[in-house]
Amino acid sequence: MAETATRPADAAARAHAGSRRRARLEDLGRLVRQPKGLIGLVLVGFYAVLAAIGPYVVPLDPYAQNFAATLQPPSASHWFGTDQLGRDVLSRVLTGARASLGIGIGGVAVAFVVGVPLGLMAAWQRGWFDMLVMRGVDIMLSFPDIVFALAIVAILGASTQNVILAVGIVAIPVFVRTSRAVAMSVIAEPFVEGNVALGSAPLRVLALHVLPNMAGILVTLASLLFASTLLAAAGLGFLGLGVQPPQPEWGTMLGESRSYIRSHPYLATFPGLFLAVSALGFNLLGEALRTIYDPTATRLPRRFRRRGRTPSAARTAQEAAWAVPPAEAVVSARDLEVSYLTESGHVAAVRGVDLDLVAGRTLAVVGESGSGKSTLLRAIATLLPAGQAAVTGGRLVIAGSDVAGLSAAAIRELRRRAIGVVFQDAASALNPVMTVGDQIVEAITTGRSLSRREAQRAAVSLLRDVQISDPERRLNTYPHQFSGGMKQRIVIAIALAQAPRILLADEPTSALDVTIQQQILTLLRDIQRQRGMAMLLVTHDLGLVARFADDVGVMYAGRIVETGPVERVFGDPRHPYTRALRLSTPRLRKGTADRMLPAIAGEPPLIGALPDGCAFAPRCALGAGRPQCRSTVPELRPLDGRAVACHVAELAR
């Protein structure tokens, strides 16, 4: 029985080990695919081999003096020449690699072993311990690195061990600050709080849950600091406070050559070149590791190119008529494609979308997570992350301006005068160190010349519009003094500060309770009607859409598959996906308490790995056995007062 019980555990352990090996291989693959990563890895590997075997492959004794052959230039006998004592420079460079790189590794190790635990404990303990550690770090950082290292070596004495201690102590503040900052963000994660709630010891939580989540960043930091530590050690050697003669070390060799720098420059050229290239190699490797473990630092090699989308089937005259935007549309998207840039190329998250936002009406976009709703909203808001996502096909016209032809300054002006955005998380959308009044006034005065008094009057008026009581007093309060619903009202006020023509709301009620949801959406609807704005609402809640939206667009795998007035689309859905969404929505009606909600079979397709033909076909019972559904992408076409992208929409009743 015991043997049987251990088998699943062993299998799970082997599977986990296998997944970790695959992850490491994937990281290695991503590293070598970057030019700087490949070059850095080759250089670091070369110097590692050089440090290991250098003393054993020297052509001559690096310590042997020959006063008959002093200061000879490079030749066949001495490839790098000889020094002032007749010693072979090549042999000394090869032998010195171990000492030079060893000091760099030792210094980083000292900084890591001391700095990381201090940073972790400061992040965990906070209070007086955190204050003492950080004030000590501030004091250490107030001294220039080389001066601080010189003082330490002067006190301890010039030796290899003391140089390692000196450069390591100088690097400790960097590890303390970085590990503290990263640890604080990891400690705030729910999985850490869960382990604390279970009564786990602090050391266990830090060792098993916090430190492993910092490993990538710490490895990157160590690689980057190695180069600076190596150069600091070389500087000490150049000043005669590093490795002592006759032991060869690149910094010491540079110091010995300074008296001959004009007459015999090769004495400094070769050790200096080896030192510089080694620092370059570790810097390149550290930068490449940073792009792997820090996604915000990623610099992808390719650029976005706008491209036309080739439809799987030509649009008919009726479909072309549907594609013409109405005259009253404030936003029109035609054949819109939005792509994310990955190492393997463009990945389209929004594909061939046609939609219109009309003044005075609300269009709700619904669909499963990953269907492209928020990406579409960000494209219309012109807030796609620069260098990571862009409009790569089709046409997007906002307030009469084609976004593709606008400069950066024109886009900023378009955002100011035409677009207001209500973000999902009101708490993070507000600056915690600024008063509510300052944030609203900033939104009002951006791009406009108003006095402080006029701006404050406008801010009070906005707070009244969003139904916040006693607005004059509330201007001087901070976001943390408001409830979640009040914060969302303030975010709405900021979005309305420039009287936009378009209001974009990205799941504005997902973090609120049911009663507050109703209040916020009622408020949005009333403000929209009063100001005649067009509104785009992204949400998962079909019930809210049915009550507060005029039109709805159902999105699947990056495409609008059905769109039209809410009462038509939800009252008589013609796309199988829309029908499945409606059937899977809970309803509190008499006689439905015991009814099982049907689930949509299968999983949404991965963006970038879509099936041929209709993306919903693998999950669609209506299209089973129909070759057209598996081979041809259906275009959006008008049908019974709505538009639907389905080959068999007429059968969906």
Write structural notes for this entry.
The protein is α/β, with parallel strands linked by helices and 653 residues long. It is built from 23 helices and 12 strands. The chain is elongated. It starts with a helix and ends in a 9-residue tail after the last strand. 39% of the residues are buried.
Mean pLDDT: 83
Rg estimate, integer Å:
33 Å
The N- to C-terminal Cα distance equals 56 Å
Q: Strand portion, in percent?
A: 5-15%
Please state how the strands of the largest beta sheet are arranged side by side: 6-7-8-3-9-10-12-11
Q: Which properties best describe this structure?
A:
653 residues; alpha/beta; 8-stranded mixed sheet; 4-stranded antiparallel sheet; 12 strands; elongated
Layout: helices, strands, pairs:
Blueprint: H1 2-33, H2 35-53, H3 89-125, H4 127-141, H5 145-156, H6 160-187, H7 190-197, H8 202-238, H9 250-257, H10 266-293, H11 317-322, E1 329-342, E2 345-358, E3 362-366, H12 373-380, E4 389-398, E5 401-402, H13 408-418, E6 419-422, H14 426-429, H15 436-445, H16 452-465, H17 471-474, H18 484-495, E7 502-506, H19 514-531, E8 534-538, H20 542-548, E9 551-556, E10 559-565, H21 566-571, H22 576-583, H23 627-631, E11 637-639, E12 642-644
Parallel strand pairs: 3-8, 3-9, 6-7, 7-8
Antiparallel strand pairs: 1-2, 1-4, 4-5, 9-10, 10-12, 11-12
Helix pairs in contact: 1-2, 2-3, 2-10, 3-4, 3-6, 3-8, 3-10, 4-6, 5-6, 6-8, 7-8, 8-9, 8-10, 9-10, 15-16, 15-18, 16-18, 18-19
